Amino acid sequence: MHKHLFALSISVATLAFSTSAFAEGNYVNLYQSGLKNEFDANQTGNGGKIGIPGSNSAYQSGDYNYLKIDQSGNNNTVGAADTSSNGSINVSDQIGNRNTLNIRQAGNNNTTQFRQNGNGNGNGELGLATNLTSITTTGNVVQQDGSFNKLDLKQTNEGSNIVGNLLFVNQVGNGGNITLNQTSRKDPNVAVFDQSGFNSSANLTQTSSISADGANFASIRQYANDSKVTSTQNGAQNRLAVLQTGTNNVANSTQDGLTSVLSITQNGTGARNEVTAVQTGGNHNLTVNQNGGLLLTNMVQDGNTQYAQIDQSGFNNQFIGMQTGFTHRLTVDQGGNNNSAYSSQYGTSNVAMIRQR
After folding, report:
1. Which residue, 121, 123, 253, 325, has fewest beta-carbon neighbours within 10 Å?
2. What are phi and psi of 319, to 5 degrees?
3. Which 3 state secondary structure label does DSSP give 8?
4. Higher pLDDT, 59 or 22
5. 10 Å Cβ neighbour count for 340?
6. DSSP 8-class letter at 134
7. pLDDT in tens, 237-249
8. Do strands 87-90 and 81-84 pair parallel, antiparallel, or not at all (unpaired)?
């Protein structure tokens, strides 16, 4: 097998355009086909592009390929979308198994759009991981430093010998946006997001087959005000942990399948934070912890043998919950003044315990 390093040809091709410290508008197109290829690009300046619309603009086909990109400046782009009559089509891809992305963008208004199609992307053997603490940041990593940066990534796999996908994203700055769609037919998908700026948003969709080892794992952490999480997990044994600190934060999460766990924490001196949690299927577990004032939790659990623990501490907080099916357990604990709880249970052998103090 041959290993092809693309960095030299990129640097030579762009040398005439990148000698200035204020270089702008540079672009690179890439096509690699085979095994164990590497692509390493560094762009300094504004308006740089890795891949342009209308072709296989940043394309690797094969197994064990590695893509590393470092951009510093504003309005830079990794990946490109070709707009047709069918809408926006992403044309920046890694096609194959156990491929890796390592992308860093420093500056404002930068965008990454990419797609991985294969098995075990971002990680060698994920196996049957049961928690996120055992996962290290050695796989797919995207780092964006600055304001109003955007990441749009799709990971899919197919075939009979299937290994799940893995992605780590860290956005430092205000107005960051993450959109990730992961699909796996067998082993777990794993996603870890950290966002530390105001007005951040994280949009996550994970889908796996409902089988003994089909699962999704995700951790989303947002550390500033006016941030939002929107997540959907489909399959069995899903795990999602959300942490938000600050005020005016929103977490909307849906889990559909069996034996899933959802944990949402909104803490600090937060006020006017909201949680909407929907779980359908059976044997789910929901935990919500909120601290502050003017907090709201909306909960719907549909199926059998669901468990929910809601803790709110502060003032003028509200819980609204509904459980349908049988053998449900609901515990609500509210500490502070002027709090309210509304609980509806439909079915048999259900239990609700509400404590206000």
Report:
1. 325
2. -120, 135
3. helix
4. 59
5. 12
6. G
7. 889 999 999 999 9
8. antiparallel
Dist. CA 168–CA 283, nearest whole Å: 29
What is the full DSSP assignment across 260-278? -EEEEEEESS-BS-EEEEE
What lies within 8 Å, CB to CB, of 178 at 6+ separation is: 150, 151, 169, 171, 193, 195, 201, 202, 203, 204
Average pLDDT over residues 140-145: 86
Each residue of 91-121: b (16+ CB within 10 Å) or e? bbbbbbbbbbbbbbbbbbbbbbbbbbbbbbb
Tokens representing 340?
């309210």
pTM for the complete prediction? 0.85
Residue labelled with tokens 């709201």:
296
Query: In the structure, what pLDDT confidence band is assigned to residue 189 with cuts at 50, 70 and 90?
Result: confident
> With 80 as the cut, is the pLDDT of residue 86 above it?
no
Q: Which residue has the higher pLDDT, 204 or 154?
A: 204
**How far is 37 from 39, CA to CA, in rounded Å?**
7
Q: What is the CA radius of gyration of the chain?
A: 22
Could you give the 3-state DSSP secondary structure of residue 50? strand
Furthest CA-CA distance within the chain: 75
The predicted-structure confidence for 258-272, as pLDDT tens digits, reads as follows 888 999 999 866 688
Strand partners, 284: none
Please state, in angstroms and as integers, the Cα–Cα distance from residue 49 to each residue in 72, 74, 306, following that order: 11, 11, 49
> What pLDDT, on the 0 to 100 scale, is given for residue 209?
67
What's the mean pLDDT in 16-20? Answer: 37
- Would you mind telling me the total number of residues written for the chain in this entry? 357
Percent over 70 (pLDDT), the chain: 78
Count of C-beta atoms within a 10 Å radius of residue 268: 16
Token pair belonging to 55: 């072709």
Taking alpha carbons only, the member of 130, 106, 102, 85 closest to residue 43 is 106
